[in-house]
Amino acid sequence: MKEVQHSESDPVVQEPPDATAAPPKLPRGARALNTGLCATVVLCLVVSLVHVLLVFLHVAPANTVSKRYSPLISSWVYPFFEQNWRLFAPDPESVNRQILARTAHTGPDGSVQVSPWFDLTAVDRSAVVHDPFPSHTAQNMLRRAWAGYVDSHGGDDNAHTERALMMQKYLGNIAADRAAARENGPFDFIQLRVVALSIPAPGPAAGNRPPPPAENRLLPWWKVTRHGK
Questions:
Q1: Phi/psi at 182 (5° precision)
Q2: CA-CA distance, 222 to 206, in Å (whole number)?
Q3: How many CB atoms are closer than 10 A to CB 210?
Q4: Tens of pLDDT along 195-210?
Q5: pTM for this one?
Q6: What is the pLDDT of residues 15-53, one digit of tens each?
Q7: What is the spatial distance between Cα 3 and Cα 18, in angstroms, rounded to a whole number?
Q8: Closest C-alpha among 183, 185, 152, 184 to residue 166
Q9: SS (H, E, C) the chain
């Protein structure tokens, strides 16, 4: 329907907007932004689905698919997405572990310079005690890295599997990064020493038995990425 407006001059006829007309085109930058946003959303959905699938295969009972793709599943899950049931079946620590580290550097003349031992566990403990909201890094990273190393190596410090080698590098890199924050000089090798002291049972269960001696485990020297200058 056409609307006719009367005025002192000639009548003006207003045409209604054409519903079939094409909408105005967006600028090229806006179209690129929309395309990138859609691609990002699709990528996030795909990664989320793949993550859920791989974690499900990791925690599910062994089956044909999980056995066939075991290396792929392990490389995705460990060490950041490892699953355990300690939330529902807590297993309190029965041993206090003290993890110490020292570094070594080979000079231009061939001489080897070894640093004194320093306590990595004490640094984490002080960060937790004096912080009302301690970070996950200070609470669990070093402890979980050592637990993963023991689970994959047992009492042998030689890596016989890909996961054992991965956990060895993971633990070594954590220690090297923390040593780099403390040491002033460069270093190319790092060595760890772990002192384990059993926690005595509380109350009468402990009796008058003397505490067991501390276990001292000295790991071999590991070559790490060069730190410092």
A1: -105, -40
A2: 39
A3: 7
A4: 988 776 666 655 566 6
A5: 0.61
A6: 555 555 555 666 777 777 888 888 999 999 999 999 999
A7: 15
A8: 152
A9: CCEEECCCCCCEEECCCCCCCCCCCCCHHHHHHHHHHHHHHHHHHHHHHHHHHHHHHHHCCCCHHHHHCHHHHHHHHCCCCCCCCCCCCCCCCCEEEEEEEEEEEECCCCCEEECCCEEHHHHHHHHHHCCCCCCHHHHHHHHHHHHHHHHHHCCCCCCCCHHHHHHHHHHHHHHHHHHHHHCCCCEEEEEEEEEEEECCCCHHHHCCCCCCCCEEEECCCEEEEEECC
Query: Which tokens is 206 given?
Result: 């402990």
Q: Hey, what amino acid is at 81?
A: F
**Amino acid identity for residue 21 in this structure:** A
Whole-number Å distance between alpha carbons of 70 and 89: 26
For residues 130 and 43, what is the distance between their CA atoms, to the nearest angstrom?
41
Length of the chain (residues): 229
Residue 87 identity (one-letter amino acid):
L
Is the separation of the CB atoms in 174 and 149 below 8 Å?
no
